Structure formats: structure tokens, C-alpha cells
Amino acid sequence: MGKHGKHLVWDWNGTLLDDIGAVIGATNAAFAELGLESITLDRYRELYTVPVPKFYERLMGRLPTDEEWTVMDGAFHRHYWERAESCGLTIGAAELLAARQESGLTQSLLSLAPHTELIPLVRRHGIAERFVRMDGRPDASTDGKSGHMVRHLAALEVPAERVVVIGDAADDALAAAHVGARAVLYTGGSHSRASLARVGVPVVDSLEEAVAVAEELA
Predict the structure, then answer these.
(1) What's the pLDDT tens digit per position in 76-107?
(2) For the chain, what is the radius of gyration of the CA atoms?
(3) Which region, left, alpha or beta, applies to residue 48 given φ > 0 means left and ψ of -120 to 50 means alpha?
(4) What's the order of all strands across the beta sheet hosting 203-204?
(5) Cβ neighbours around 177 below 10 Å, total
(6) pLDDT tens-digit readout, 152-181
(7) In Å, what is the CA distance from 20 to each residue of 67, 142, 215?
(8) Which pTM value belongs to this model?
(9) Are the C-beta atoms of residues 186 and 167 closer than 8 Å to each other?
(10) Which residues share a beta bridge with 167?
């Protein structure tokens, strides 16, 4: 494990994987099954939050019941994984990951996607070897990323002051703050720029810029 320079903890969905189109398609396909109105990308980005049941509360005006949530979550994931295979990496992602590894700097992957689905997909994109560790969600919980970040950094044995989290959601910044790390948020995924700006961390429009800003953070 390198001991100099920033260690980057990358998010997957909406950050390294350019899957926002698949997410919107799956969301609206699931909504159609459930009798809910379809949603635009702009509205999705303005309302999206973690934990995801709170997102549905914003849409429905109430939290879904446990039974409703089970149906909603199952429908979304069925439609999403049908689309995920056709999603590519975000522009520049593969090159940035390779260059960082080749320069001796370290990076890891932490996602709320199911671990058993995440790892094969990352490998199919040919970038698994760029990371010193990859962790997806190990269970069916709807919790945010904070608890997972604690376990991820403990396994890495990297001090939080060396860590910068790069993600596309407010929850990524919350998880970073939870462990005492820094964060940079990317606008190409689940949130609007305005909603990311409210979080109070740097907001960027490309992954190249995210890496550059991450390296400059004190």
C-alpha cells in the first residue's frame, strides 16, 4: 500500500459507470408497474436521496410500506440489471485509473450496489486490477454508505486524512465526513449540480477535474 499522496475511494454507479440513463429507464419501468407517473432526469436528480425509501417518500408524499418497498426495490433492480450490461465507463475513467495506478498511487472502490453483482461487472470492464480493494453492499439493507465506509477504510488500513471520496451523491460526502475524510462530487450521476452544491464540498463536471481537485485538498 502506497504511503504517499491521496488514496481515492471511488463510487461506482453514476461515477465510474455512466449508468444514469439505465437508472432513469429502470426507474420509469418500475414506476409503470406500480402505477406511478414517470419521472424526468432533471426531477430525478433534484429529488434523489439515500436511503432510497426517502426518495420514494419525496415522490409519493409518504414513506412506502415494507411490502411496497419490497415490490419497488425488486422491480427497479430487475429492470436496472437488464440495462446495466450495456452501460459504459464514464469518459476518461479507464485512463485516469490506469495512470494513477502506474504512478504508484492507490485507489479503491466502494459501492452500494450488491457485492455479488458489482464485482463481476467491474471485472468485465477490465479495471478491477486498478483497485487495491473493491466492496459492494453485502446485504439487503437500505442504509447509506457511512457504515460501509468505516469498514472499508478499516480493511484498507489507510488513515482518513489521506482519503478523498469521489462520488456523485450527497451520501458519498456524508460517508467521507463520517470517517474524517474529504470528498469531491461529480455532476454526471444522480444529483443536480444545485443539490450537490448544497453539501458544501467541491463539485466538478468531469472525473479528470475530480482527481485534480482531490490531489489539491489539504
Answers:
(1) 999 999 999 899 999 999 999 999 999 999 99
(2) 17
(3) beta
(4) 134-137, 107-114, 7-10, 163-167, 182-186, 203-204
(5) 18
(6) 999 999 999 999 999 999 999 999 999 999
(7) 26, 20, 26
(8) 0.93
(9) yes
(10) 185
